[in-house]
Amino acid sequence: MVGLMGPAGSGQLTKMINQICIAGVVQGLAEGIHFGKKAGLDIHKVVEVISKGAAGSWQMENRHKTMNDGKYDFGFAVDWMRKDLGIVLEESDRNGAKLPLTALVDQFYKDVQALGGQRWDTSSLLARLEK
């Protein structure tokens, strides 16, 4: 059977692509906020400027304030993300896709779990940088 995106299973594969993209975006946002804080910048003002350009994203618009405040109870849990990234990495082993960033961010989420952040949302990647 062919669906909107292709053959059966395309929806699950599309969800995997979504998780790959989110993992990279959230890690970049976490590092940007961490860098800006260490540099003494006003993160809200910085994000106001850069969110209007190429770096802008839903994650930036909707999570930068809570990330900056160290609040991580607003979204998809780290445990669930690690489950999904595990499925992605298994599929990449099967289909031969090279996903070094996804594998690395999965390990970063493992670090967040070790901090007690199993139920924190995925934006909690910043917490591992600030520990």
Structure characterization notes:
It is built from 6 helices and no strands. It is mostly helical and 131 residues long. The protein is globular and about 50 Å long. The N and C termini lie far apart (49 Å).
Name some characteristics of this structure.
single chain, 6 helices, 66% helix, globular
Which helices and strands appear, and what pairs or packs with what?
Elements: H1 10-38, H2 43-50, H3 58-68, H4 78-95, H5 100-114, H6 125-130
Helix pairs in contact: 1-3, 1-4, 1-5, 4-5
How would you state the average pLDDT, rounded?
93
Order of helices and strands: HHHHHH
Rg, Å, rounded: 16 Å
Helix content: 55-70%
Strand content: under 5%
Given the helix and strand composition, which structural class is it?
mainly alpha
Number of helix segments?
A: 6
Q: Which shape, going by the Cα principal axes?
A: globular
Separation of the first and last Cα atoms = 49 Å
Low-confidence stretches: none
Main sheet attributes: strand count, strand direction, barrel closure: none
Tally of DSSP β-strands = 0
State the gist of this model.
By secondary structure, the chain is mostly helical. It has six helices and no strands.
